[in-house]
Amino acid sequence: MAETTSTTPSARSSGATGATIELENLTKRYHGNPQPAVDNVTMEIAAGETVVFVGPSGCGKSTTLKMINRLIEPTSGRIRIGGEDVTDIDPVGLRRKVGYAIQSSGLFPHMTVAQNIGIVPKMTGWPKSRIRARVEEMLDLVGLDPGEFHGRYPRQLSGGQQQRVGVARALAADPPVLLMDEPFGAVDPITRDHLQDELIRLQRELHKTIVFVTHDFDEAIKLGDRIAVLREQSHIAQFDTPEAILTNPADDFVSGFVGAGAALKRLNLTRVGDVEITDYPTATVDDPLQDIFQRLRAGGTNEILLLDKRGRPYKWLRRGDLMRAKGSLARAGTLVHDTVTRDATLRDALEAVLTDNAGRVAVTGRRGAYEGVVDMETLINSVHEMLEADRLDALEHQHDLEESRAGQTRPGQGGGGSGERGAPA
Amino acid sequence: MSTTGGRRPGGEHEVRGLVFRDDGEAETEPEPEPRPPSPARAGRRISRQKLTLLPALLIAVLLATWLWFRQAELDPVSENALSDGRVSKALWQHVELTVISTFFVLIIAIPLGVLLTRAAFRKATPVAMALANTGQATPAIGLLALLVIWLGIGRRAALIGIIVYAVLPVLSNTIAGLKANDPTLLEAARGIGMSPLGVLTRVELPLAVPLILAGVRTALVLNVGTATLATFGGGGGLGVLITTGITNQRMPVLVLGSILTVALALLVDWLASLAELLLRPRGLEVGT
Ligand SMILES: Nc1ncnc2c1ncn2[C@@H]1O[C@H](COP(=O)(O)OP(=O)(O)OP(=O)(O)O)[C@@H](O)[C@H]1O
Ligand SMILES: [Mg+2]
User: Fold this and answer.
1) Between chains, do B11 and A335 touch, taking CB under 8 Å as contact?
2) Is the CB of A214 under 6 A from ligand 1?
3) Are both A231 and A289 inside the same structural domain?
4) Is the CB of A37 under 6 A from ligand 1?
5) Which residues are bridge partners to A84 per DSSP?
6) Segment (H or E) for A311
7) ipTM above 0.90?
8) In a mutational test of the pocket of ligand 1, which residue from A27, A61, A212, A236 has the highest number of ligand atoms less than 8 Å from its CB?
9) CA atoms within 13 A on the CB side of B199
10) Which long-range contacts (CB under 8 A, 24 or more apart) does B91-94 make?
């Protein structure tokens, strides 16, 4: 995903972009337990990449993650971030350069939102004015109005808002690496969906290296450039792109994790921005009625999209509607229920098309402004193409596999095997 | 940002604020924002009533006592015990004993509590708690007697007795307060790069403040009480009036000593509750 979306790194160009992370034979043995909780994990994560750890509860995801910022000291093995060996450096200094966000946000209840976000910059000795500006910037970045939320205490926020502040705090000191341990685990599914979308948007702007832990495979598909499916003791069952894992699970354990409906899940892998967005005749509420009539008559379609004062989709207007409403714009047409952004998945778009009876869905950009529409036909065509391409890939892969099997014994299925193949350049 | 990104209340035309802020909140808070500070304010108002009631009561009692003593016919023994500013001296000594002992209780018990909750010293916690318990379980008067035998008559012995007696509530509350902190929150604090000292001073102690203050309040009231025993060790205080009243069988002297002690205890308790209210970190208020 990182390769396909090459957006310009927006206004926030000052940000430090990601650093590589290398884990080398990382092992953790807890006191009094002969079985290691994490056994000999070796993994390379590219700069700017989002890697998601998924696996059953207790398999060592959190332990592996916390060894990266040494909240848990590894028993053996090395950790390198941006090429620097950080296994033995001062952990406090290390953690200030590695963002950390956890489930149920971990915000300090006795500090305001602004204090929570500003704490790492404050500890690193930023001047007050710079901290203040940074807090505003971070609140804006995670979609909270600085004026409104600045002085609130965590208790006065909803779960989703707390989680946003948690992410803002993790990003405040502009660390190249971000570690997230089930950060969206404690919020309702709709809010989680929003937070995931926001994270994708953030990551497109910031290009951090993100290691994200979840036990929700759908979340992993949605967020990960690559997914590491872990089994007990953090043994890597498969480390590859979501597409490859969906179409080519390495073994029964991974297929079990992928679960049913792989074809539908595939819809989650393509974004609205990747398919054709077409123009559609529009008018705004401020246009004179006469103009709107004209446009309805002139356009090939008998329907136009009415935008509100800020250019956001407002109503679908059919030719007869204005007549029936006796020329009153306020009463005519049907309200737009659902819109999607370019970051939304095809699945979201399909759902929106199905619920809105317009047969198409409006695509919006920043601040909800109209950008175009995607219709049912486009969606169905792209899904067909996508599935066809997957099928060919799978056939090819199977062929490769059979060939290599015929040649020798099966290559080691742990760790490296299929992993390196999907690594982005 | 996804499908529901553009959803807005049916028919509504202008949505307040930025749209990209609306999403996410749109679902979690369908109704207008509740004004969060109001419940807290209500809580404050109730305690404010409580806070004004007590001083009014105290003033009334003290005024009544003073008026009674002005018109009372006192015999020479009582007269002698209450004249020459002896009452104010006893009161002042008592306040001093309370303040000094509380100060030492704080600088002993809180750091000790902090120390005993650090990983390195956690094993010593039962021992220290047992010691502190012994301090409080010993009858205060017996403890004082032992200290006088050891250190001789004087204020020092009295002060040490009072301090030993009051360490326990502050110590146990400090430990309880620090232990009550959510370990995941403390891990988050370390995770974002706080040093162990930073975690302690910025997170652990502020969050433990309500419990610690409750312990301090108990200790203060306790100290006002035990300071009446200081007189047996030659430490002065309001205990002087009480013992004089008892040994000479002069009711007015005894009553005055008792009333002043009770009033002082209540006043100190009131001040402490005020401090609790003011020092409790904002954002922790229940009902917010
Ligand atoms: N402090 C500890 N002492 C001893 N064993 C521990 C400790 N922390 C974790 N473990 C063990 O290590 C293993 C891995 O734990 P970890 O928290 O990494 O799992 P996880 O994959 O994050 O699980 P979950 O999805 O439930 O969060 C578990 O078997 C757990 O019991
Ligand atoms: Mg975990």
Assistant:
1) yes
2) no
3) no
4) yes
5) A81
6) none
7) no
8) A61
9) 21
10) B91/B238, B91/B260, B91/B264, B93/B230, B93/B235, B93/B236, B93/B237, B93/B238, B93/B240, B94/B224, B94/B227, B94/B228, B94/B236, B94/B237, B94/B238, B94/B239, B94/B260, B94/B261, B94/B264
Stretch A129-148: mean pLDDT, rounded? 90
Q: Do A185 and A290 fall within a single domain?
A: no
Instruction: Report the distance separating Cα A62 and Cα B202, nearest Å.
Output: 25
Q: Does A378 contact ligand 1 (Cβ within 6 A)?
A: no
> Widest CA span of chain A, in angstroms?
82
Quick check: is A84 in a domain? yes
Chain centre distance of CA A328: 42
Tokens, residue A271: 């974004």
CA dihedral A305, A311, A314, A320 (to 10 degrees): -30
Let me know whether A282 and A235 are in one domain: no
Q: Over range B22-50, report the average pLDDT.
A: 44
Q: Is A194 in the pocket of ligand 1 (CB under 6 A)?
A: no
Give yes or no: residues A90 and A187 share one domain. Answer: yes
| pTM given for the model | 0.71
Q: Residue A67: give its domain's CATH number.
A: 3.40.50.300
Structural domain total, chain A: 2
A371 and A299 housed in the same domain: yes
Q: What is the pLDDT of residues A312-323, one digit of tens each?
A: 888 888 877 777
Length of chain A: 425
Output the pLDDT for position B46: 52
Question: Across the interface, do B1 and A191 touch by the CB < 8 Å criterion?
Answer: no
Question: Which structural domain range is residue A368 located in?
Answer: 273-380
Q: Are residues A348 and A247 in the same domain?
A: no
Q: Domain for residue A158, yes or no?
A: no
Q: At what angle do helices A113-123 and A128-141 cross, to 10 degrees?
A: 130
**Domain presence at residue A246:** yes
Q: What pLDDT does A395 receive?
A: 73
Q: Please give the C-alpha separations between residue B267 and each of B55, B263, B271, B283, in angstroms, as whole numbers.
A: 7, 6, 6, 28
Residue A70 and residue A189 in one domain? yes
- The CATH class for the domain spanning B25-284 reads mainly alpha
With CB atoms and an 8 Å threshold, state whether A198 touches B36.
Answer: no
Residue A78, beta-bridge partner list? A24
**How far is A57 from B193, CA to CA, in rounded Å?**
27
Shared domain for A91 and A224, answered yes or no, is yes
Considering only residues A213 and B43, tell me which one the structure prediction assigns the higher pLDDT.
A213
The partner residue sitting opposite B284, judged by closest CB among A109, A336, A349, is: A109
Which one of A208, A236, A266 terminates a domain? A266
Question: How high is the pLDDT of residue A407?
Answer: 64
State the residue for tokens 């590491």: A228
Is A389 domain-assigned?
A: no
Instruction: Please compute Rg for chain A using Cα positions.
Output: 24
What residue ranges do the domains of chain B occupy?
A: 25-284
Instruction: Look at residues A413, A349, A339 and name the one whose alpha carbon lies nearest to residue A376.
Output: A349
CA distance B145 to B151: 10
A399 min Cα distance to partner chain B (Å): 38
- The residues, ordered by sequence, that sit 6+ positions from A33 with a Cβ below 8 Å of its Cβ are none
